[in-house]
Design goal:
Blueprint (H helix, E strand, L loop, with lengths): L3 H46 L3 E6 L5 E4 L1 H7 L3 H4 L4 H4 L5 H12 L4 E9 L5 E13 L2 E10 L1 H23 L3 E6 L4 E4 L1 H7 L3 H4 L13 H14 L6 E6 L5 E12 L5 E10 L1 H35 L1 H20 L4 H12 L10 H4 L7 H8 L1 H9 L8 H7 L20 H16 L10 H11 L6 H12 L7
Helix pairs in contact: 10-11, 11-12, 11-17, 11-19, 12-16, 12-17, 15-16, 16-17, 17-18
Protein backbone atom coordinates (compact mmCIF):
# COMPACT_ATOMS: atom_id res chain seq x y z
CA UNK A 1 0.00 0.00 0.00
CA UNK A 2 1.38 3.37 -1.01
CA UNK A 3 2.30 5.97 1.54
CA UNK A 4 -0.13 8.94 1.16
CA UNK A 5 2.27 11.42 2.75
CA UNK A 6 5.00 10.46 0.29
CA UNK A 7 2.69 10.85 -2.71
CA UNK A 8 1.55 14.27 -1.46
CA UNK A 9 5.13 15.38 -1.05
CA UNK A 10 5.93 14.36 -4.65
CA UNK A 11 2.87 16.29 -5.91
CA UNK A 12 4.01 19.42 -4.05
CA UNK A 13 7.54 19.17 -5.48
CA UNK A 14 6.16 18.60 -8.99
CA UNK A 15 3.84 21.59 -8.62
CA UNK A 16 6.69 23.76 -7.35
CA UNK A 17 8.85 22.78 -10.33
CA UNK A 18 5.97 23.55 -12.70
CA UNK A 19 5.46 26.98 -11.14
CA UNK A 20 9.14 27.75 -11.53
CA UNK A 21 8.98 26.77 -15.23
CA UNK A 22 5.86 28.92 -15.68
CA UNK A 23 7.59 31.90 -14.03
CA UNK A 24 10.57 31.43 -16.33
CA UNK A 25 8.32 31.25 -19.38
CA UNK A 26 6.42 34.38 -18.27
CA UNK A 27 9.70 36.21 -17.75
CA UNK A 28 10.99 35.14 -21.19
CA UNK A 29 7.71 36.20 -22.78
CA UNK A 30 7.95 39.61 -21.14
CA UNK A 31 11.55 40.02 -22.30
CA UNK A 32 10.59 38.97 -25.82
CA UNK A 33 7.74 41.47 -25.84
CA UNK A 34 10.04 44.23 -24.65
CA UNK A 35 12.65 43.38 -27.32
CA UNK A 36 10.06 43.41 -30.08
CA UNK A 37 8.85 46.78 -28.87
CA UNK A 38 12.41 48.17 -28.91
CA UNK A 39 12.95 46.72 -32.41
CA UNK A 40 9.74 48.34 -33.62
CA UNK A 41 10.89 51.68 -32.22
CA UNK A 42 14.30 51.38 -33.86
CA UNK A 43 12.77 50.43 -37.19
CA UNK A 44 10.34 53.35 -37.01
CA UNK A 45 13.20 55.75 -36.21
CA UNK A 46 15.23 54.49 -39.17
CA UNK A 47 12.15 54.52 -41.41
CA UNK A 48 11.23 58.10 -40.60
CA UNK A 49 14.72 59.63 -40.34
CA UNK A 50 16.19 58.13 -43.50
CA UNK A 51 17.14 60.79 -46.08
CA UNK A 52 16.11 58.30 -48.77
CA UNK A 53 12.48 57.79 -49.81
CA UNK A 54 11.05 54.57 -48.28
CA UNK A 55 7.64 53.14 -49.21
CA UNK A 56 5.64 50.04 -48.26
CA UNK A 57 3.25 48.90 -51.02
CA UNK A 58 0.65 46.13 -51.25
CA UNK A 59 1.92 43.91 -54.08
CA UNK A 60 -1.59 42.75 -54.95
CA UNK A 61 -3.09 46.12 -55.88
CA UNK A 62 -0.19 48.62 -55.73
CA UNK A 63 -1.72 50.69 -52.91
CA UNK A 64 0.65 52.50 -50.56
CA UNK A 65 0.48 51.22 -47.00
CA UNK A 66 3.14 53.48 -45.51
CA UNK A 67 5.66 56.17 -46.54
CA UNK A 68 8.36 57.99 -44.60
CA UNK A 69 8.82 61.73 -44.09
CA UNK A 70 11.40 61.96 -46.92
CA UNK A 71 8.71 60.77 -49.35
CA UNK A 72 6.31 63.50 -48.18
CA UNK A 73 8.98 66.23 -48.32
CA UNK A 74 10.09 65.27 -51.81
CA UNK A 75 6.65 64.76 -53.37
CA UNK A 76 4.73 67.53 -51.66
CA UNK A 77 1.88 65.11 -50.77
CA UNK A 78 0.43 64.70 -47.28
CA UNK A 79 0.30 61.25 -45.70
CA UNK A 80 -3.51 61.32 -45.87
CA UNK A 81 -3.34 61.82 -49.66
CA UNK A 82 -1.07 58.87 -50.34
CA UNK A 83 -1.98 56.12 -47.86
CA UNK A 84 -4.42 53.75 -49.59
CA UNK A 85 -3.82 55.32 -52.98
CA UNK A 86 -2.02 53.32 -55.65
CA UNK A 87 1.22 54.45 -57.26
CA UNK A 88 -0.61 54.16 -60.56
CA UNK A 89 -3.27 56.63 -59.43
CA UNK A 90 -0.68 59.05 -58.11
CA UNK A 91 1.41 58.52 -61.26
CA UNK A 92 4.60 58.77 -59.23
CA UNK A 93 6.96 56.12 -60.58
CA UNK A 94 8.23 56.17 -64.13
CA UNK A 95 6.13 54.64 -66.89
CA UNK A 96 3.52 51.91 -66.71
CA UNK A 97 6.02 49.55 -68.37
CA UNK A 98 8.60 50.29 -65.67
CA UNK A 99 6.12 49.52 -62.87
CA UNK A 100 4.90 46.28 -64.45
CA UNK A 101 8.45 45.12 -65.13
CA UNK A 102 9.51 45.76 -61.51
CA UNK A 103 6.47 43.95 -60.01
CA UNK A 104 7.02 41.00 -62.35
CA UNK A 105 10.67 40.83 -61.38
CA UNK A 106 9.84 40.91 -57.67
CA UNK A 107 7.14 38.25 -57.92
CA UNK A 108 9.61 35.99 -59.71
CA UNK A 109 11.69 36.07 -56.53
CA UNK A 110 14.39 38.46 -57.82
CA UNK A 111 15.29 41.69 -56.04
CA UNK A 112 15.48 45.05 -57.80
CA UNK A 113 18.76 46.87 -57.17
CA UNK A 114 19.60 50.44 -58.11
CA UNK A 115 17.42 50.91 -61.17
CA UNK A 116 17.27 54.52 -62.32
CA UNK A 117 13.67 55.72 -62.73
CA UNK A 118 11.95 59.04 -63.16
CA UNK A 119 9.90 60.21 -60.19
CA UNK A 120 7.05 62.71 -60.46
CA UNK A 121 6.20 65.07 -57.58
CA UNK A 122 2.77 66.51 -56.82
CA UNK A 123 3.71 69.70 -58.70
CA UNK A 124 4.71 67.66 -61.76
CA UNK A 125 8.48 68.10 -61.33
CA UNK A 126 10.47 65.12 -62.53
CA UNK A 127 13.32 63.80 -60.37
CA UNK A 128 15.78 61.03 -61.20
CA UNK A 129 15.81 58.33 -58.53
CA UNK A 130 17.90 55.22 -57.89
CA UNK A 131 15.28 52.57 -57.06
CA UNK A 132 15.82 49.35 -55.01
CA UNK A 133 13.08 47.07 -53.70
CA UNK A 134 12.32 43.71 -52.03
CA UNK A 135 9.20 41.52 -51.92
CA UNK A 136 8.42 40.18 -48.44
CA UNK A 137 5.50 38.20 -46.97
CA UNK A 138 3.85 39.27 -43.70
CA UNK A 139 0.92 37.23 -42.35
CA UNK A 140 0.32 35.76 -45.78
CA UNK A 141 0.30 39.19 -47.41
CA UNK A 142 2.93 40.22 -50.03
CA UNK A 143 4.49 43.65 -49.50
CA UNK A 144 6.93 45.61 -51.60
CA UNK A 145 9.54 47.51 -49.53
CA UNK A 146 11.24 50.14 -51.69
CA UNK A 147 14.21 52.39 -50.92
CA UNK A 148 14.87 55.23 -53.36
CA UNK A 149 17.81 57.67 -53.51
CA UNK A 150 17.46 61.04 -55.27
CA UNK A 151 20.29 61.36 -57.84
CA UNK A 152 18.90 64.32 -59.80
CA UNK A 153 21.48 66.84 -58.56
CA UNK A 154 24.24 64.28 -58.94
CA UNK A 155 23.21 63.62 -62.54
CA UNK A 156 23.03 67.33 -63.30
CA UNK A 157 26.50 67.81 -61.83
CA UNK A 158 27.81 64.82 -63.76
CA UNK A 159 26.30 66.15 -66.98
CA UNK A 160 27.86 69.56 -66.40
CA UNK A 161 31.18 67.90 -65.66
CA UNK A 162 30.97 65.88 -68.86
CA UNK A 163 30.01 69.02 -70.79
CA UNK A 164 32.94 70.86 -69.21
CA UNK A 165 35.33 68.02 -69.98
CA UNK A 166 34.09 67.92 -73.56
CA UNK A 167 34.46 71.70 -73.87
CA UNK A 168 38.05 71.64 -72.59
CA UNK A 169 38.83 68.61 -74.75
CA UNK A 170 37.68 70.53 -77.82
CA UNK A 171 39.73 73.57 -76.76
CA UNK A 172 42.84 71.43 -76.21
CA UNK A 173 42.41 69.63 -79.51
CA UNK A 174 41.71 72.78 -81.55
CA UNK A 175 44.35 75.12 -80.11
CA UNK A 176 47.55 75.83 -82.03
CA UNK A 177 49.82 75.43 -79.01
CA UNK A 178 51.04 71.96 -78.03
CA UNK A 179 49.63 70.44 -74.84
CA UNK A 180 50.98 67.32 -73.20
CA UNK A 181 50.93 65.34 -69.97
CA UNK A 182 53.68 63.02 -68.77
CA UNK A 183 53.66 60.60 -65.85
CA UNK A 184 56.08 60.86 -62.94
CA UNK A 185 58.58 58.68 -64.84
CA UNK A 186 58.58 61.07 -67.78
CA UNK A 187 56.52 58.93 -70.18
CA UNK A 188 53.96 60.75 -72.34
CA UNK A 189 50.41 60.11 -71.07
CA UNK A 190 48.41 62.58 -73.20
CA UNK A 191 48.98 64.88 -76.17
CA UNK A 192 46.70 67.10 -78.22
CA UNK A 193 46.43 67.16 -82.00
CA UNK A 194 48.85 70.07 -82.33
CA UNK A 195 51.55 68.05 -80.54
CA UNK A 196 51.22 65.39 -83.23
CA UNK A 197 51.35 67.94 -86.07
CA UNK A 198 54.39 69.71 -84.65
CA UNK A 199 56.35 66.53 -83.85
CA UNK A 200 55.32 64.47 -86.87
CA UNK A 201 54.32 61.50 -84.67
CA UNK A 202 50.84 59.95 -84.37
CA UNK A 203 49.08 59.83 -81.01
CA UNK A 204 49.57 56.07 -80.74
CA UNK A 205 53.31 56.56 -81.26
CA UNK A 206 53.62 59.33 -78.70
CA UNK A 207 51.60 57.75 -75.88
CA UNK A 208 53.97 55.89 -73.57
CA UNK A 209 57.05 57.35 -75.28
CA UNK A 210 59.70 58.85 -72.94
CA UNK A 211 59.58 62.65 -73.19
CA UNK A 212 63.36 62.67 -73.66
CA UNK A 213 62.96 60.72 -76.92
CA UNK A 214 61.47 63.76 -78.66
CA UNK A 215 64.01 66.17 -77.14
CA UNK A 216 67.29 67.07 -78.84
CA UNK A 217 70.08 65.13 -77.01
CA UNK A 218 72.00 68.28 -76.07
CA UNK A 219 68.89 69.64 -74.31
CA UNK A 220 67.85 66.52 -72.36
CA UNK A 221 69.80 67.42 -69.22
CA UNK A 222 68.27 70.91 -69.16
CA UNK A 223 64.70 69.64 -69.61
CA UNK A 224 65.24 67.07 -66.84
CA UNK A 225 66.52 69.81 -64.53
CA UNK A 226 63.46 71.91 -65.43
CA UNK A 227 60.99 69.16 -64.47
CA UNK A 228 63.09 68.32 -61.40
CA UNK A 229 62.83 71.90 -60.13
CA UNK A 230 59.03 71.87 -60.61
CA UNK A 231 58.79 68.58 -58.69
CA UNK A 232 61.02 69.93 -55.92
CA UNK A 233 59.24 73.28 -55.43
CA UNK A 234 55.71 72.30 -56.48
CA UNK A 235 55.48 75.61 -58.35
CA UNK A 236 54.72 76.25 -62.01
CA UNK A 237 57.96 76.49 -63.95
CA UNK A 238 59.17 79.67 -65.59
CA UNK A 239 59.06 79.87 -69.42
CA UNK A 240 61.60 77.42 -70.81
CA UNK A 241 62.94 76.96 -74.35
CA UNK A 242 62.39 73.32 -75.26
CA UNK A 243 64.40 72.00 -78.21
CA UNK A 244 62.22 69.42 -80.01
CA UNK A 245 63.48 66.61 -82.23
CA UNK A 246 60.83 65.79 -84.85
CA UNK A 247 60.17 62.36 -86.36
CA UNK A 248 61.66 63.43 -89.71
CA UNK A 249 64.89 64.58 -88.04
CA UNK A 250 64.12 68.30 -88.18
CA UNK A 251 64.32 70.43 -85.04
CA UNK A 252 61.92 72.93 -83.52
CA UNK A 253 61.89 75.35 -80.62
CA UNK A 254 58.99 75.76 -78.18
CA UNK A 255 58.52 78.22 -75.33
CA UNK A 256 57.28 75.83 -72.66
CA UNK A 257 55.54 76.28 -69.30
CA UNK A 258 54.88 73.18 -67.17
CA UNK A 259 53.36 72.38 -63.77
CA UNK A 260 52.70 69.40 -61.49
CA UNK A 261 49.70 67.08 -61.73
CA UNK A 262 48.48 65.88 -58.32
CA UNK A 263 45.94 63.26 -57.27
CA UNK A 264 43.10 63.95 -54.82
CA UNK A 265 45.44 63.35 -51.88
CA UNK A 266 47.87 65.94 -53.24
CA UNK A 267 50.48 63.38 -54.27
CA UNK A 268 52.40 64.32 -57.47
CA UNK A 269 51.53 61.95 -60.31
CA UNK A 270 53.09 63.71 -63.28
CA UNK A 271 53.47 66.95 -65.21
CA UNK A 272 51.38 68.92 -67.68
CA UNK A 273 52.74 71.51 -70.06
CA UNK A 274 51.80 73.89 -72.84
CA UNK A 275 54.23 75.11 -75.47
CA UNK A 276 54.20 77.75 -78.20
CA UNK A 277 56.11 77.14 -81.41
CA UNK A 278 58.86 79.79 -81.67
CA UNK A 279 60.92 78.02 -84.33
CA UNK A 280 60.48 80.83 -86.89
CA UNK A 281 61.26 83.45 -84.25
CA UNK A 282 64.37 81.53 -83.20
CA UNK A 283 65.52 81.23 -86.81
CA UNK A 284 64.92 84.96 -87.32
CA UNK A 285 66.94 85.73 -84.20
CA UNK A 286 69.79 83.57 -85.46
CA UNK A 287 69.72 85.34 -88.83
CA UNK A 288 69.66 88.70 -87.04
CA UNK A 289 72.67 87.69 -84.96
CA UNK A 290 74.50 86.65 -88.12
CA UNK A 291 73.62 89.99 -89.72
CA UNK A 292 74.76 91.87 -86.62
CA UNK A 293 77.99 89.90 -86.60
CA UNK A 294 78.64 90.85 -90.23
CA UNK A 295 77.69 94.45 -89.45
CA UNK A 296 80.03 94.54 -86.48
CA UNK A 297 82.88 93.23 -88.58
CA UNK A 298 82.14 95.82 -91.26
CA UNK A 299 81.85 98.51 -88.62
CA UNK A 300 85.15 97.39 -87.11
CA UNK A 301 86.87 97.67 -90.47
CA UNK A 302 85.33 101.11 -91.06
CA UNK A 303 86.40 102.35 -87.65
CA UNK A 304 89.91 100.98 -88.13
CA UNK A 305 90.13 102.95 -91.39
CA UNK A 306 89.00 106.08 -89.53
CA UNK A 307 91.54 105.49 -86.75
CA UNK A 308 94.30 105.00 -89.31
CA UNK A 309 93.32 108.28 -91.00
CA UNK A 310 93.49 110.12 -87.67
CA UNK A 311 96.77 108.41 -86.78
CA UNK A 312 98.41 109.64 -90.00
CA UNK A 313 97.22 113.18 -89.38
CA UNK A 314 97.63 113.38 -85.57
CA UNK A 315 99.44 110.54 -83.74
CA UNK A 316 98.70 112.12 -80.37
CA UNK A 317 94.94 111.95 -80.95
CA UNK A 318 95.13 108.36 -82.26
CA UNK A 319 96.97 107.09 -79.19
CA UNK A 320 94.58 109.00 -76.91
CA UNK A 321 91.51 107.39 -78.53
CA UNK A 322 92.91 103.88 -78.12
CA UNK A 323 93.67 104.40 -74.42
CA UNK A 324 90.27 106.04 -73.80
CA UNK A 325 88.53 103.11 -75.55
CA UNK A 326 90.32 100.57 -73.35
CA UNK A 327 89.57 102.48 -70.14
CA UNK A 328 85.92 103.12 -71.07
CA UNK A 329 85.44 99.40 -71.83
CA UNK A 330 86.99 98.46 -68.46
CA UNK A 331 84.74 100.94 -66.59
CA UNK A 332 81.65 99.57 -68.33
CA UNK A 333 82.70 96.02 -67.45
CA UNK A 334 83.27 97.01 -63.81
CA UNK A 335 79.75 98.50 -63.76
CA UNK A 336 78.25 95.22 -64.98
CA UNK A 337 76.88 96.48 -68.30
CA UNK A 338 75.93 93.85 -70.89
CA UNK A 339 78.47 92.68 -73.46
CA UNK A 340 76.76 94.36 -76.40
CA UNK A 341 76.74 97.76 -74.71
CA UNK A 342 80.39 97.31 -73.67
CA UNK A 343 81.38 96.55 -77.28
CA UNK A 344 79.58 99.68 -78.47
CA UNK A 345 81.43 101.79 -75.88
CA UNK A 346 84.79 100.36 -77.04
CA UNK A 347 83.92 101.13 -80.67
CA UNK A 348 82.85 104.69 -79.86
CA UNK A 349 85.97 105.23 -77.75
CA UNK A 350 88.16 104.34 -80.72
CA UNK A 351 86.71 107.24 -82.76
CA UNK A 352 85.30 109.62 -80.16
CA UNK A 353 87.61 112.45 -81.40
CA UNK A 354 87.03 111.77 -85.11
CA UNK A 355 85.65 115.31 -85.42
CA UNK A 356 89.21 116.61 -85.03
CA UNK A 357 89.75 115.65 -88.66
CA UNK A 358 87.92 118.91 -89.44
CA UNK A 359 90.40 120.97 -87.36
CA UNK A 360 93.59 122.33 -88.97
CA UNK A 361 96.56 120.12 -88.11
CA UNK A 362 98.70 123.11 -87.09
CA UNK A 363 96.24 123.81 -84.26
CA UNK A 364 96.16 120.15 -83.13
CA UNK A 365 99.98 119.92 -83.11
CA UNK A 366 100.64 123.46 -81.78
CA UNK A 367 103.40 123.17 -79.10
CA UNK A 368 102.34 126.31 -77.24
CA UNK A 369 99.23 127.30 -75.33
CA UNK A 370 96.10 127.59 -77.48
CA UNK A 371 94.33 130.91 -77.92
CA UNK A 372 90.66 131.25 -77.04
CA UNK A 373 89.73 131.15 -80.74
CA UNK A 374 91.85 128.03 -81.30
CA UNK A 375 90.33 126.30 -78.28
CA UNK A 376 86.84 127.22 -79.55
CA UNK A 377 87.66 125.54 -82.85
CA UNK A 378 88.83 122.39 -81.04
CA UNK A 379 85.56 122.32 -79.05
CA UNK A 380 83.72 122.04 -82.36
CA UNK A 381 85.05 118.47 -82.78
CA UNK A 382 82.07 116.93 -80.89
CA UNK A 383 79.60 118.51 -83.32
CA UNK A 384 81.78 117.67 -86.32
CA UNK A 385 82.14 114.04 -85.20
CA UNK A 386 78.38 113.75 -84.82
CA UNK A 387 77.82 115.11 -88.34
CA UNK A 388 80.27 112.54 -89.73
CA UNK A 389 78.62 109.58 -87.98
CA UNK A 390 74.92 110.42 -87.76
CA UNK A 391 74.02 108.61 -91.01
CA UNK A 392 76.25 105.60 -90.42
CA UNK A 393 74.25 102.35 -89.92
CA UNK A 394 75.27 100.92 -86.56
CA UNK A 395 73.80 98.69 -83.80
CA UNK A 396 75.18 101.20 -81.27
CA UNK A 397 74.51 104.93 -80.71
CA UNK A 398 78.03 105.87 -81.90
CA UNK A 399 77.04 109.31 -83.19
CA UNK A 400 75.36 110.28 -79.88
CA UNK A 401 78.28 109.01 -77.77
CA UNK A 402 80.68 111.13 -79.83
CA UNK A 403 78.26 114.10 -79.66
CA UNK A 404 77.85 113.93 -75.85
CA UNK A 405 81.25 112.87 -74.51
CA UNK A 406 82.12 116.42 -73.40
CA UNK A 407 78.77 117.04 -71.67
CA UNK A 408 78.76 117.22 -67.84
CA UNK A 409 76.17 116.13 -65.25
CA UNK A 410 75.68 119.71 -63.98
CA UNK A 411 75.18 121.16 -67.47
CA UNK A 412 78.61 122.82 -67.64
CA UNK A 413 79.78 120.77 -70.65
CA UNK A 414 79.48 121.32 -74.40
CA UNK A 415 78.20 121.55 -77.09
CA UNK A 416 74.56 121.43 -75.84
CA UNK A 417 74.96 121.80 -72.06
CA UNK A 418 72.99 118.61 -71.35
CA UNK A 419 72.32 117.62 -67.73
CA UNK A 420 72.01 114.37 -65.75
CA UNK A 421 69.81 111.73 -67.39
CA UNK A 422 69.78 113.74 -70.63
CA UNK A 423 73.26 112.31 -71.20
CA UNK A 424 73.30 108.65 -72.24
CA UNK A 425 75.23 106.28 -69.96
CA UNK A 426 77.76 105.45 -72.71
CA UNK A 427 78.68 109.14 -73.02
CA UNK A 428 78.95 109.52 -69.22
CA UNK A 429 81.46 106.64 -69.17
CA UNK A 430 83.35 108.13 -72.14
CA UNK A 431 83.54 111.53 -70.37
CA UNK A 432 85.31 110.09 -67.30
CA UNK A 433 87.69 107.93 -69.38
CA UNK A 434 88.49 110.92 -71.64
CA UNK A 435 89.31 113.26 -68.71
CA UNK A 436 91.54 110.69 -66.94
CA UNK A 437 93.55 109.89 -70.08
CA UNK A 438 93.83 113.54 -71.20
CA UNK A 439 95.08 114.77 -67.82
CA UNK A 440 97.46 111.88 -67.25
CA UNK A 441 99.05 111.96 -70.72
CA UNK A 442 101.40 114.36 -72.52
CA UNK A 443 100.06 116.90 -75.02
CA UNK A 444 101.98 118.99 -77.56
CA UNK A 445 101.06 122.19 -75.71
CA UNK A 446 101.65 120.90 -72.14
CA UNK A 447 103.25 118.06 -70.18
CA UNK A 448 101.07 115.36 -68.60
CA UNK A 449 99.59 116.28 -65.18
CA UNK A 450 99.85 112.69 -63.92
CA UNK A 451 97.40 109.95 -62.98
CA UNK A 452 97.02 111.07 -59.35
CA UNK A 453 95.87 114.52 -60.46
CA UNK A 454 93.44 112.94 -62.92
CA UNK A 455 91.92 110.65 -60.28
CA UNK A 456 91.73 113.55 -57.81
CA UNK A 457 89.74 115.52 -60.42
CA UNK A 458 87.26 112.64 -60.83
CA UNK A 459 86.86 112.14 -57.07
CA UNK A 460 86.43 115.86 -56.36
CA UNK A 461 83.74 116.33 -59.02
CA UNK A 462 81.87 112.98 -58.89
CA UNK A 463 78.16 113.62 -58.55
CA UNK A 464 78.74 117.16 -59.81
CA UNK A 465 80.35 116.94 -63.24
CA UNK A 466 80.73 113.18 -63.46
CA UNK A 467 78.23 110.37 -62.91
CA UNK A 468 78.60 108.89 -59.40
CA UNK A 469 78.54 105.23 -60.39
CA UNK A 470 80.90 105.78 -63.33
CA UNK A 471 83.37 107.73 -61.18
CA UNK A 472 83.31 105.07 -58.42
CA UNK A 473 83.95 102.28 -60.95
CA UNK A 474 86.89 104.21 -62.44
CA UNK A 475 88.45 104.88 -59.02
CA UNK A 476 88.11 101.21 -58.04
CA UNK A 477 89.88 100.10 -61.20
CA UNK A 478 92.96 102.21 -60.51
CA UNK A 479 93.11 102.14 -56.70
CA UNK A 480 91.91 98.61 -55.92
CA UNK A 481 92.37 96.54 -59.08
CA UNK A 482 95.67 97.85 -60.38
CA UNK A 483 94.49 99.17 -63.74
CA UNK A 484 97.14 100.99 -65.85
CA UNK A 485 96.78 103.17 -68.91
CA UNK A 486 98.52 101.40 -71.81
Amino acid sequence: MNDPSKEYQELIEENTSLKQKIRKLEKSAAEIGETELQTDKKFDAIFQCSPDVITVTDASNGSLLDVNDSFLQLTGYSKKEVIGSSTKELNIWGSMEDRERIVKQLKSGANVDKVELSFRTKSGELRQMLFSSRLIEVDGRQLIIANTHDVTDHNVTEEKLLESEEKYRIILEDMEDVYFEVDIRGNIAFVNTSSCKKSGYGKEELLGMPFTQISVPDGIERIMQYFGEIFKTGKTGKPFIWHLKKKNGEEGFFELVASLIRDRQGKPTGFRGIGRDITERKQSEEKLQQTLSILRKSMGVTIQVMVSAIEVRDPYTAGHQKRVADLARSIATEMGLNKDKIEGIRMAGSIHDIGKLAIPSEILAKPTKLTNIEFSLIKEHSQSGYEMLKNVESPWPLAQIVYQHHERMNGSGYPRKLKGEEIIIEARIMAVADVVEAMASHRPYRPGLGLDAALEEIEKNKGIMYDNSVADACLRLFREKGYHLQ
